[in-house]
Amino acid sequence: MADRAEYARKGIARGRSLVVMQYADGIVFVGENPSRALHKFSEIYDRIGFAAAGKYNEYENLRIGGVRYADLRGYTYDRDDVTARGLANVYAQTLGTIFSSAGEKPYEVELVVAEVGSSPEGDQIYRLPHDGSIVDEHGSVAVGGNAEQIGSFLDQRHRDGMSLAEALKLAVQALSRDTNGSEREIPAERLEVAVLDRTRPQSRKFKRIVGRQLARLLAAREPATAPTDAVGDEAEGPEGSEE
């Protein structure tokens, strides 16, 4: 079992790190991803988002299974019965079964399932390592190759009530730090950013932040005084798209 755990950890460490973080109006997902077709972040259901690091084909299978579970449960019972906790339990059972099975290799993935509530107190973030355990996270969480160092950096600097621009800049700053302590620049075109925005009037709260909106958020000099205008003017802009 120790060998299987080490195998999975090494596979996850080869992937790029990503950050999931609470901000005043919801939850933001930030990661370095040069691909525009293979997404690390996706919508699972109305208020639930999915993030993953590791082998794409493995976490894509898990994502599709989560969407099917959510659709079936929401159709059979009620849309409010689809929760991040329930989805995390399903993923935990799947990952745990695969990890303990001698007939197949463990999945080289680490997942984050997040649900935005009607208030910051109702937000839920669950991290699921390769062995199927569930970790209830608060504030911020990092997974992937350099997760430990990035997580420590975020723990020291993240605070409640941050604007989207502030949270995005902090996440990019954390992702830019190399293992030797130096920093590098990550251009906007290499970033994948999405949010679960509780202020959206639609029932579906997931939205991608791309194009000019992303550039303006990264370039904002005074995010503490202008986050409402920066986000509100473009909440339904043409650059954002839903899944």
From TrEMBL:
<comment type="similarity">
    <text>Belongs to the peptidase T1A family.</text>
</comment>
<dbReference type="InterPro" id="IPR022296">
    <property type="entry name" value="Proteasome_asu_bac"/>
</dbReference>
<dbReference type="InterPro" id="IPR001353">
    <property type="entry name" value="Proteasome_sua/b"/>
</dbReference>
<protein>
    <submittedName>
        <fullName>Proteasome subunit alpha</fullName>
    </submittedName>
</protein>
<dbReference type="Pfam" id="PF00227">
    <property type="entry name" value="Proteasome"/>
</dbReference>
<dbReference type="GO" id="GO:0019773">
    <property type="term" value="C:proteasome core complex, alpha-subunit complex"/>
</dbReference>
<feature type="region of interest" description="Disordered">
    <location>
        <begin position="220"/>
        <end position="243"/>
    </location>
</feature>
<dbReference type="GO" id="GO:0004298">
    <property type="term" value="F:threonine-type endopeptidase activity"/>
</dbReference>
<dbReference type="InterPro" id="IPR050115">
    <property type="entry name" value="Proteasome_alpha"/>
</dbReference>
<dbReference type="InterPro" id="IPR023332">
    <property type="entry name" value="Proteasome_alpha-type"/>
</dbReference>
<keyword id="KW-0963">Cytoplasm</keyword>
<dbReference type="GO" id="GO:0010498">
    <property type="term" value="P:proteasomal protein catabolic process"/>
</dbReference>
<keyword id="KW-0647">Proteasome</keyword>
<dbReference type="InterPro" id="IPR029055">
    <property type="entry name" value="Ntn_hydrolases_N"/>
</dbReference>
<feature type="compositionally biased region" description="Acidic residues">
    <location>
        <begin position="231"/>
        <end position="243"/>
    </location>
</feature>
